[in-house]
Fold these 2 entries.
Entry 1:
Amino acid sequence: MSVNYPGGVKPIGRPIKKTHVKLDSAANRGMGFEHDINLTNEYYLEKGLALVYKRPTPINVVKVDYSHGAKITQAYFECQSTTDYNGVYKGHYVDFEAKSTRSKTSFPLNNIAPQQVEHLLNVKKHGGIAFFLINCYAINETYLLDSDYVCAFYQEKPRKSIPLEEIKKNGHLVKEGYRPRYDYLPLIEEFLLK
Amino acid sequence: MSVNYPGGVKPIGRPIKKTHVKLDSAANRGMGFEHDINLTNEYYLEKGLALVYKRPTPINVVKVDYSHGAKITQAYFECQSTTDYNGVYKGHYVDFEAKSTRSKTSFPLNNIAPQQVEHLLNVKKHGGIAFFLINCYAINETYLLDSDYVCAFYQEKPRKSIPLEEIKKNGHLVKEGYRPRYDYLPLIEEFLLK
């Protein structure tokens, strides 16, 4: 099977099986959201507004064939121990995770790895700006949520998800458009910079 | 050929050929410096002083075999379009490149890619802290150099390297020890924070 990842966009979760239409469309939607965030960051870079990059997917390289240049012949995807995006806005360190959910009622917290929560708590501890961008596909809205809010939910064991109503109440609606696709910078400026 | 990269440390430059002893030791030394910087960052994290990570090596995945989990069977190393390290120190965005040279007289600028210079100029433009850590193996000293200084040298076409004397004069000597191995944070505090 041949897979290309344009713009470094990786598939989320399990491999796409063409027979499972629902799983397929979910994976594509996740990729679509990441792709749009990448375009947003390119726009910010072009306009000189911020410098935000997607971190490369960590890959554990096991075998390399050097007979014709360096060709990796055996390697495995590793879990991202941090988040997908980080960068600089007006000198401030910015770090965030972008997630998409198709649920109509809540954002499932099993989308987030424990080491990501730990990482975001560390970012906050060191004075950085940390948040989640949560794309609620069912209602066609995207919210910026402070990482502290999401991490608190995560650390309360009984909760397995954040209800959409809570996201609406405690998050900040991201303005969508053509360019930038998801304009999250004004929300950092208004709500996260102290 | 089987290759393991402990701690995500990648070999620098060409593949290591066991018959070329000098190249072999040069590559090992480069890896050793990166490894020591990684240990330094782990120390800073443990002590709650800063949060700095090595970016994963970007890899272009061409083929994945999903018959037993996801095994990458064809992939290629890509050039790092940014730098090796970034993170947060007291809320400030920090970005740097760590390089080792065995030259006794100068630091060759062909070690630095044009897109890395562009990236570091962008970091500065957005108010971030950007620098180089240059390990001068021949004299057993490591210097922190402001990225603006190195980028200026890079952009003056006739210069192919920075003389060691210039590095000593314009850089800041990094204190070496057991833990942290290369204590670069006090130099950020003293010389790069405005």
Entry 2:
Amino acid sequence: MTCFKANIGHKIFFENAQAIIPSDTAAAPKECAGAVGAFVDRPLNDDMFGEDTFEKAECKMLSVAIDTAIKNAGLKRSQIDVLFSGDLLNQIISASFAARDFDIPFLGLYSACSTMSEAMLLGAAMVNAGYANRAVAATGSHFASAERQYRYPLEQGTTRPPQSQWTVTGAGGCVIASAGKGVRITCGTMGRVVDFGVTDVNNMGAAMAPACADTLLSHFRDTGTSPEDYDLILSGDLGALGSRILKDLTWEKGYDISANHVDCGEIIYKVIEDEFQGGSGAGCSAVVFNSYILSKLRSGQFRKVLFAATGALLSTVSSGQGESIPCISHAVVLEA
Amino acid sequence: MTCFKANIGHKIFFENAQAIIPSDTAAAPKECAGAVGAFVDRPLNDDMFGEDTFEKAECKMLSVAIDTAIKNAGLKRSQIDVLFSGDLLNQIISASFAARDFDIPFLGLYSACSTMSEAMLLGAAMVNAGYANRAVAATGSHFASAERQYRYPLEQGTTRPPQSQWTVTGAGGCVIASAGKGVRITCGTMGRVVDFGVTDVNNMGAAMAPACADTLLSHFRDTGTSPEDYDLILSGDLGALGSRILKDLTWEKGYDISANHVDCGEIIYKVIEDEFQGGSGAGCSAVVFNSYILSKLRSGQFRKVLFAATGALLSTVSSGQGESIPCISHAVVLEA
């Protein structure tokens, strides 16, 4: 076993053959209507999932995604050494209450919509270092619980501005193991908090794009790679507008990602209707990555993917006190 | 370098000599009036710290603790590879906005009042594995921002029940390095979510004690140690009542910790006045550990300390929807 040790910049190389063996995703009907829907393991009939509150439905989706990912790996819960999870709700109650159902050590994370890649990065680090044989990384979100918490009551029927996105109702998780066949996590790049001064809480794409650009540029520089080295550069939930900004920002620094960049938020919905710029939320990249992208990696259609989920670290209180929106993006490299 | 690799249970041994070189704490006048106050690096004149909102004051305390810990180590910010931080506020805005001031990779955590030990565990893991040369672990809390968010507006003057605790206004952080003299982190035990069905949001000690007991018992079992092996077993913020419950629960399982157990919440305040059971909040264990306890470890008064911060993973929404309070505790072993 060799652990990479040096002045690491922002990146970590994972030199063991730890693999993502199985994954599982659950998503609501709207999320399953698009191109990604066919790859979702558990399409739901409605967004309540048999629960009486949105928050409980969100928690149940996450719990089911964790449980089924473990089962899909042919493992028992007792064989999982640690669960990395978080979500968008205050005090990450979806993750905490889901973790209550499992008799597994739990390390709670908050990184807004970049939680999926933060969890994968830390899971791969713990497994690669030999501190865990198997880790689960999982997250999710729910449109209605996010709207209630961050914006307006749904009953109010507030008009959404054209630069807004639609929080994905879905959850996804994967098992990261020290042995086994599967897609490998070979590198991780930890993001810094970047704030370009955007204050429009309905324009998350513009706020998050600079953080994503910062992480991608750090990654290319630290690893000596360029966009052409990846079959796909997958951002989390910048949406259509944010993706354009990301391409501009990286292009200005000499990296043209336009040929192989795709954004999870841009591709999850079938039609641009009231979701405008596309999907967002921790569940957006969790669902798209763990279903559609992972299946393409497994089939060999993609050989190497750079996955950089993106998160906006605001709260209603910070915005109410006049603060701008600090953002972050963590990246992991997946190889078939 | 040898990384421990096996079926790990809940524990991780850190075999490299990574050390906590420096630390820094900031705390408000009430917190500095007690026995711990003399060890606080930066006693504040008031709880606003020159800011115009409680949340900004909380963020500034945390930012100062991080910055000063780095300076105390004789380091520049650019020499820190990763910052692990989180706090109690929705979307951990104190940590996220503090991280915005630093050009350092940031991994956001949420583990309520057990964030200090979660951050130290992950920081030590990253440093021990060679993924970082130096990591910072830090957290904080503020009485007024916590009251506003979790309970009642201060202006309402709500009477506090006798089983309640007082959220500490303070922050603390430490640098964990792969080389250097100092107190060493030699082991970590990751906690599971434990919920004994307590629903009284004013009785956090009773809710958290079972989680702390679960982690301590896992730790003793997994490491083959017993309470006598530690000069001090330090829980996070159980308060007076929670500490009694913890001693009972561990005693029932054959481990008598009564001779060397101390709770941060029990010792931080000088007089039991309106804080009743003692201190709580992420800042409670952050301040007590990084000032008082660490100085005793440095001076050799303590040789080996088991530090288990404790967190209640509820939110106002979860309690409003009738849920009980899931809790967690992560433990690290410090050796002089």
